[in-house]
Design goal:
Elements lengths: L2 E6 L5 H15 L3 E6 L2 H5 L3 E4 L4 H10 L2 H10 L4 E4 L1 H6 E6 L3 E2 L8 E7 L9 E7 L4 E8 L4 E5 L4 E6 L2 E7 L2 E4 L10 H13 L1
Parallel strand pairs: 1-2, 1-3, 3-4, 4-13, 5-7
Antiparallel strand pairs: 5-6, 7-10, 8-9, 11-12, 12-13
Helix pairs in contact: 1-6
The structure holds glutamine.
Length: 204
């Protein structure tokens, strides 16, 4: 089966995720299409979706304007795997408060029962890289790139914690939905994108 994975192309680092997913497919020896998606029509055709890092308030508002939000919600309800990275994980959460500003009343998709603290590690200039372990999904060592990253401050009972950094939860999973605070598309290591590609091919 050839799979089609979309990268939501409203705002954020779309191209880097397209490259990383294509690399994952190549390394797995699988065929598939990786495409930028914006419209409901494009989203309805997907087998998997990546919501990239960027600015979650912008992605949320524009997803209402271009009606992609409804299509994404329907597809996830039908079981489509989705990978939310940084702002993308914020989009998937039920509650997101900024560390300084508090509640920004931003539109969220509300699929992961998690409460997020946005900009949890500081501003852009406080960006950093750190070694992360995700033992439960067989990725014992991964270079986490954190850029104005959120952390997960509380989780519901059905949320699996994949990783913590300095006691803060930075990667979670629930069924076919995964979210990371850090940016795997900004490293050379395609392990996490390969994990997601496998989820998509198994769901298909
Ligand atoms: N701080 C951004 C937000 O709250 C996320 C940053 C990122 O995606 N790198 O939306």
């Amino acid at each position: 089966m050839s799979i089609t994975i979309g990268v939501l192309a409203i705002q954020g680092d779309v191209q880097e995720n397209i490259f990383a997913t294509q690399k994952a497919l190549d390394e797995l020896g699988m065929s598939g299409n990786v495409i930028p998606v914006k419209t409901p029509d494009e989203i309805y055709k997907l087998n998997g979706l990546i919501i990239p890092g960027g600015e979650s308030t912008t992605i949320g508002q524009l997803s209402l304007v271009n009606r992609s939000r409804t299509a994404i919600k329907e597809k996830i309800e039908q079981g489509m795997p989705v990978f939310g990275i940084c702002a993308g994980m914020i989009m998937l959460s039920t509650t997101a408060n900024d560390r300084i500003v508090g509640n920004t009343n931003q539109p969220l998709l509300e699929f992961l029962d998690i409460q997020l603290e946005r900009n949890s590690f500081g501003r852009q200039r406080n960006s950093f890289e750190a070694s992360i372990s995700m033992d439960s999904i067989n990725i014992p060592k991964f270079n986490g790139v954190f850029i104005r990253a959120p952390s997960v401050s509380s989780i519901g009972p059905d949320i699996e914690v994949l990783s913590k950094y300095e006691e803060k939860i930075v990667a979670v999973k629930k069924g076919n939905i995964i979210g990371t605070s850090f940016h795997p598309e900004l490293t050379q290591d395609a392990a996490l994108h390969k994990y997601f590609v496998n989820l998509v091919s198994q769901a298909g």
